[in-house]
Amino acid sequence: MSDLLERLRGRGWRMTAQRRVVAEVLDGDHVHLTADEVHARAVDRLPEISRATVYNTLGEMVTLGEVIEVSTDRRAKRYDPNAHRPHQHLVCATCGAIRDVHPAGDPLADLPAGERFGFTVSGVEMTYRGICPNCAANA
Fold first, then answer.
1. What is the DSSP letter of 115?
2. Which of 35, 45, 137, 139 suits 62 as a labelling partner, its CA being 20 to 30 A distant?
3. Are 54 and 38 in contact (CB under 8 A)?
């Protein structure tokens, strides 16, 4: 059973066939699919699943804090099941590929007190940008 399925079951989330398929599609490392990509993969496993069900299920998973909604530039939102391990993202500026990265150190600690402007900072979102090996090879 996938980590995401286990986490959802642990929260007492009612596991319908549709919800299970969406969770299974999101399982894995470096998964950052759009809702349409989740739907296309879910249809392969459960042909009758609707786009609305996929969108609603993703929204519920985000609300539960079990999936992270990732926005990069003007591209479609992507869904990241790696919600419980702090990480940042590395994004290809050409194709939009996203990889999870775990830089050393605490980025929150790197923000000097004088740059916090009195805020109580609760989190950091950093995005590293570059060109992936596939796009670099095809350039």
1. G
2. 45
3. yes
Examine the pLDDT at 1 and tell me if it is beyond 70. no
Q: Is 92 strand, coil or helix?
A: strand
Rounded to the nearest 10 degrees, the angle between the axes of helix 17-26 and helix 3-10 is 140
Give the length of the chain.
139
- Full DSSP string of 96-111: --EEEE--SS-TTTTS
Token couple for 113: 């007190």
In this predicted model, what pLDDT tens digit does every residue of 78-137 receive, in sequence order?
A: 999 988 888 889 999 898 889 999 888 777 777 888 888 989 888 888 889 999 999 999
Buried/exposed code over 33-50 (b: 16+ C-beta within 10 A; e: otherwise): bbbebbbebbbeeeeebe
